[in-house]
Amino acid sequence: MLQLFSLIVTVLSRDILPERGLYMDYDVIIIGAGTAGLSAAIYTQRAGKKALVLEENAYGGQIINTLDVENYPGIAHISGFDFATGLLEQAQNLGAKVEYEEVLRVENQEDRKVVHTQQHTYSAKAVILATGVTRRKLNIPGEAELTGKGVSYCATCDGAFYRKKDVAVNGGGNTALEDAAFLANICRKVYIIHRRDQFRADEAEVAGIRGRDNVELVLNSTISALQSEEGKLSAVVTKDKVTGAERTISVSGLFVAIGQVPSNAAFKDVAEQDPAGYIIAGEDCRTSTPGIFAAGDCRTKKVRQLTTAAADGAVAALAACSYVDEA
Known about the structure:
Layout: H1 2-13, E1 23-31, H2 35-46, E2 51-54, H3 80-93, E3 97-99, E4 103-108, E5 113-117, E6 121-129, E7 133-135, H4 143-146, E8 151-152, H5 155-158, E9 166-170, H6 174-184, E10 189-193, H7 203-210, E11 215-218, E12 221-229, E13 232-240, E14 246-250, E15 253-256, E16 260-262, E17 292-294, H8 306-326
Parallel strand pairs: 1-2, 1-6, 2-3, 6-17, 8-15, 9-10, 9-15, 10-11
Antiparallel strand pairs: 4-5, 5-6, 7-16, 12-13, 13-14
Helix pairs in contact: 2-3, 2-8, 6-7
């Protein structure tokens, strides 16, 4: 009877709502199952701590859609899917628990961090935010309606649907040029639409694209409108930023690669963010709140690559484990 009374007192003291599920304790909770998050889980478990990974969608993050990874040291070639799956299996084999739940908010209590999802309430001494980023939208009329019907944000996911057809890629960074190179192998023609006259991508990517016979550059131009026939994309309308001239380009597919948006809105109360929404954290991955760390593309940094995401995961995990030991 005394044990039951103690349990009731403990539950009530933590303000647990029964309909939200049980209150479950971990050493470190990691929000996000991309490269940074799963790397953090591996290092947390290897440090002898109990890790929980919470992921809203699917594991792997953006890399899971990459056809061929060639820039990870020690691995000459590997698909993004195989790379991400290897990380997941390694973390789980070490004992990390992975749950697919949307995190609603994080509370910074005096002796713990409390993480609320739609299904459960969890607590831990430390939290690692590894939420990654999402693709930026064009925000023009018809984009939402034509998404999945000609408009896509993942060339490796949807490119096969446009085999031997004309398509366009919007963007000027590495992702845009990588998408264009991939599409040029299977599509009849690829238009690259970029708002500047120079690309932001690595020179190697630019050189590779310029050598393609079926790639046409549409520079100093933005997409002003989308046209459709029978509910599917049929053309994009571009506007030259210098002359103001408009051009209608007939395409079956448009692949948007104009940047990324951090997924940090739910954590603004516990981690200071810059004007763009990235969590302010240095190379030590420490945020403005003790015990809360940020790893990967979601934090302020200059280089966002697979290797830096993995490195952030390791740094954040070891820092979180030290925090747990000191708490």
